């Protein structure tokens, strides 16, 4: 496809963009020059206000984010019990998520500041300019032939602006979801391709096409972490048998590393991998959720069960621990869903990884190259 002469095709996106322009042109003819000028001015004012609000929100969110993180870090946020109210569990998850996840914190602050700016500016505009309101879209034709012709031209310009905004949104979608269900179809539109190539891409540079997918992927990872924090609530209650076992295993260990290692050895050798549970999930789509107490009692589980039991026992022994989810090397050149732990060693002031599920296949207590076989995908609790 070369130039603007061959942009019209049978693609729905093409016709939708053309329909936006045509409808705006029709409205411009009906409103006449005066009404179209007001409509165009209103559109441009709204666009300018949006840009201003976005800029202010971005700056404010950047400045407020470390302040909010520090403030939340000073608060005592204890895990609610598993039988606590839904509001208590939501509050804990939300506040710890805002404390620990920088992109989530920035996004929340951005949306709040953006909404406040729009609200304040809108209120000020209504107070200072009480007669200024968005002109009606429909009505009887206004003015004579010259007025309606000029109104049609202005309406077409307004429609082009609206179509440009829609194209920018589609461009952002294609950048975010390069393998999405509609991406190929959108990109088959000749009009979309021309507008994207001639206007959107030069104007946006690498922001939409390169940086937006990276930001979205990072945000997705943080949302995964937020989702995984549910284990902090679900497994907050430590049954007596798990507590007593953890204390017995670590009673002669003096430091965090020794305690963490003893628990790794215990979980790794006492729990058997539940192949039946894996087959039920792979063949029947049946997922058998189990808590640490079930894993402790049955001595069977899969990787997430190992990790949750280890986390419960480590907390019972006074350790700070995380459940991490991501991908684990399958030994055949590929990776599959996996879960493991990270534990904080106060003496060393460092988080170290460990994988009790793989304990029977080698020493996976903070070995060199752990990250080569374990790919974190954002899920981490604790």
TrEMBL record:
<protein>
    <submittedName>
        <fullName>Colicin V production protein</fullName>
    </submittedName>
</protein>
<feature type="transmembrane region" description="Helical">
    <location>
        <begin position="12"/>
        <end position="29"/>
    </location>
</feature>
<keyword id="KW-0812">Transmembrane</keyword>
<keyword id="KW-0472">Membrane</keyword>
<feature type="transmembrane region" description="Helical">
    <location>
        <begin position="41"/>
        <end position="61"/>
    </location>
</feature>
<dbReference type="InterPro" id="IPR002931">
    <property type="entry name" value="Transglutaminase-like"/>
</dbReference>
<feature type="transmembrane region" description="Helical">
    <location>
        <begin position="106"/>
        <end position="129"/>
    </location>
</feature>
<dbReference type="InterPro" id="IPR038765">
    <property type="entry name" value="Papain-like_cys_pep_sf"/>
</dbReference>
<dbReference type="Pfam" id="PF01841">
    <property type="entry name" value="Transglut_core"/>
</dbReference>
<keyword id="KW-1133">Transmembrane helix</keyword>
<feature type="domain" description="Transglutaminase-like">
    <location>
        <begin position="295"/>
        <end position="358"/>
    </location>
</feature>
<feature type="transmembrane region" description="Helical">
    <location>
        <begin position="150"/>
        <end position="173"/>
    </location>
</feature>
């Amino acid at each position: 496809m070369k130039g603007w002469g061959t942009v019209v095709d049978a693609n729905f996106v093409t016709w939708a963009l053309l329909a936006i322009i045509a409808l705006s042109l029709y409205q411009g003819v009906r409103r006449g020059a005066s009404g179209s000028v007001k409509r165009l001015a209103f559109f441009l004012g709204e666009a300018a206000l949006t840009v201003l609000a976005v800029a202010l929100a971005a700056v404010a969110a950047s400045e407020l984010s470390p302040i909010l993180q520090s403030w939340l870090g000073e608060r005592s946020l204890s895990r609610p019990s598993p039988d606590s109210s839904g509001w208590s569990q939501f509050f804990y998850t939300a506040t710890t998520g805002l404390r620990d996840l920088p992109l989530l914190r920035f996004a929340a602050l951005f949306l709040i500041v953006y909404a406040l700016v729009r609200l304040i500016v809108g209120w000020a505009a209504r107070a200072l300019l009480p007669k200024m309101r968005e002109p009606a879209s429909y009505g009887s034709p206004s003015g004579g032939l010259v007025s309606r012709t000029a109104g049609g031209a202005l309406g077409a310009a307004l429609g082009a602006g609206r179509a440009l905004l829609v194209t920018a949104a589609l461009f952002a979608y294609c950048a975010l979801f390069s393998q999405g269900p509609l991406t190929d179809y959108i990109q088959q539109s000749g009009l979309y391709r021309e507008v994207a190539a001639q206007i959107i891409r030069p104007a946006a540079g690498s922001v939409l096409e390169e940086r937006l997918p990276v930001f979205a992927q990072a945000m997705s990872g943080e949302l995964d972490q937020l989702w995984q924090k549910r284990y902090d609530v679900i497994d907050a209650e430590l049954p007596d048998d798990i507590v007593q076992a953890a204390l017995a295993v670590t009673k002669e260990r003096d430091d965090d590393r020794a305690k963490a290692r003893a628990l790794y050895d215990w979980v790794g050798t006492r729990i058997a991998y539940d192949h039946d549970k894996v087959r039920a999930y792979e063949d029947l789509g049946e997922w058998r959720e189990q808590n640490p107490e079930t894993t402790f009692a049955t001595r069977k589980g899969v990787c997430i069960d190992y990790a949750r039991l280890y986390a419960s026992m480590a907390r019972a022994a006074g350790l700070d621990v995380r459940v991490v989810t991501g991908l684990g090397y399958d030994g055949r050149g590929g990776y599959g869903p996996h879960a493991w732990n990270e534990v904080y060693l106060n003496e060393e002031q460092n988080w170290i990884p460990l994988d009790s599920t793989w304990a029977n296949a080698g020493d996976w207590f903070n070995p060199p190259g752990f990250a080569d076989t374990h790919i974190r995908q954002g899920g981490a609790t604790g």
